[in-house]
C-alpha cells in the first residue's frame, strides 16, 4: 500500500496550522464535532429531495469514546460518510472543504446552514494526535475505507470493514511531555467541559459513556461504579427559542449557567434580527460591577457563535467601550470565517451587528430609565461612571448617544435626575445649567458659592465623580443651555445688590494690597456678588476649575508638574469680617497680612485644597485669639 503525499502547498499549510494557527489545543474537538454535525446535516438535505430517504432525527448522533488503555479518542458520527474518492479529495488536499462545496451546490437557506465552510479544521487533530485514522462508509455504499496519516509526511487509503454508514475518527493521543499534558484529552470530565464550552448547541446529540457511582445493593456505606451513556450537549440554544416560550427565570438561569456574573441581571435583551444581517443575541445588563471592571485587566466582549458553535469567548468588536459592561452572546449564520474559525475573514457583517447591538442597548437602558427607575439607578450606581467616561472619551464623539442616560443629584429634588428633567424645570430667566463639583453632596450643599444660585430659586446639579466635569465639558450644551459652575467668575445672574461694582471700586486699593500679599496664589481679589452669609470663597476664571485642578494633579504621570486653575478670592463686603479688614488696612498692615492669609486658607479648606503651611495657619489662628 503506497503512501500518498499531500500536495506541496497543503503540506506547508498543515505544518503552519499545527504549529501556529490555533491558539488552544482543545479547539480540535470543536472542529471534529462540527464536521460530524455537517455530515449528519448532509443526510438531512439529501432527504429533502430524495423520496426514498427518510430522515428520522432520533437515528442521528455523535459519539465520543476515550480509551485510556490504548491512548485513543474516537469521534463517531452517523452522517453521510465518504467514498474513497471523497476521502482523497477532502482529506488529501487541505482547505478543499466538502461542506463548503455542498453548501454552494445546494444553496441552503432554511436555517440549517453547514457549519464548516473551510476544510482545515479536521487537521487540528494533529495538535494532539501522533496518528489520525478515518474510517468511513458513504451513504448508499457497501464499501468502507480507511484514511490514515501521521501528519505532514502523507497519508494512506485502503479498504476496510464498517457495518454502518458514517465516519469514525480515531486519534492516537500523543504522550505527555514536560510542557504538555495530553492525558487530559482522555479524561471524561475534561472532554465533557470542552463539549459544553464549544459545542453545547450542536443540534444533534453528542453522546459519551460516563462513569458514575451508586450505593451497592445489599450493603451499607459501600458504593459501586457503573457506566451509562449520556447526552452531553443541550442541543437547543435558548436564543433560538421563541420569546413567548421563555420566562424571566429562563433568562436568569442562562445568565448563571454561562457564568456571566454572580449577580442577578437588571435587564435582558433578546434579539432576533432578520434584515441586512441575520443573527440572534441575548444580552444582559448586570446590576453589579465585576471585581476587576475598572482595571486594565478587565476584558470586554460578547460570546460569538456561528450556527451554534462557539467561535470566540469574548469578541470585543461587538461592544463599544462605553457599553463594555454588557454580557451575553451573539449567534449568526452570516459571519464568514476563515481557516481556524477564530479569526473573522470579513468584518462588514460584524460591524452591522455591533451597530445594531449598540442601538438595542441604548434603547433598553432608556426604557429601564423611563419605566423602572429603581432598577436603572441600581445599574447606574455600578456603571454610571463608565457612561460618563464614554461621553468624555474620544473628544466627545459619543455624547449624543449617552447624554440622556446620565444622572446627577439635584439640589431641588434631593435625588438623581436626568439632564432633560433638569432643563424641563428651568425658569424662563435662567440662562445656564448650574452645577457644583466636589467630593460629596453633603459638602456641596454647604459651599458658599451656591448661595446666590439657590437664592434665585435655581436648581444645582451636584457632581461627585471626578469624571463628571470633564464629561460635561465635552457635552458643552444640552438643549441649547450651557453648563456653568457655581464657582465660575460670571454666573450670568444679575445681583440684587446694585452696590457691588461700587464696592469693588471703592475698595480697590484694599483688594490690590491683599492681592500683593497673596502674590502668585490668586489672580485677583474682589468684592463678591454671590456670597450672602459666608465671608469668603474662591471662584475661577477660564476653563479649568478647582475640582478639575485637583483631579488632574492627583493623576499619576504628572512628573511633579502641577496644573493651576486661575483662582479669584472673593470677599463678602457685607460681612462683619470685612470691617475688620478695612480697619487693618487703614491702621495695621501686619494685621492685614494676618487676616488676608487666614481668609485665603479658609477658602482653600472650603474647596478641599491643601494648605501650604498648616503650622503657620494654626499660629495665625492663635494670634487672632490672644
Oligomer: single chain
Helix and strand composition category: alpha+beta
- Pick out the low-confidence regions: 95-100, 108-118, 338-342
Number of strands: 22
The radius of gyration over CA amounts to 36 Å
Q: Proportion of β residues?
A: 15-25%
**Widest beta sheet: strand line-up:** 5-4-3-6-2-1-7-8
Biggest sheet overview: 8 strands, mixed
Inertia-based shape: elongated
Helix content: 25-40%
Mean pLDDT over the full residue set: 88
How many helix segments?
Answer: 19
Distance between the termini: 113 Å
Task: Describe what this molecule looks like in 3D.
With 626 residues, this protein is of the alpha+beta class. 35% of the residues lie in helices and 21% in strands. The chain contains 19 helices and 22 strands. It has an eight-stranded mixed sheet, covered by helices on one side. Strand 9 and strand 10 form a beta hairpin. The chain starts with 7 loop residues before the first helix and ends with a helix. About 4% of the residues have low confidence.
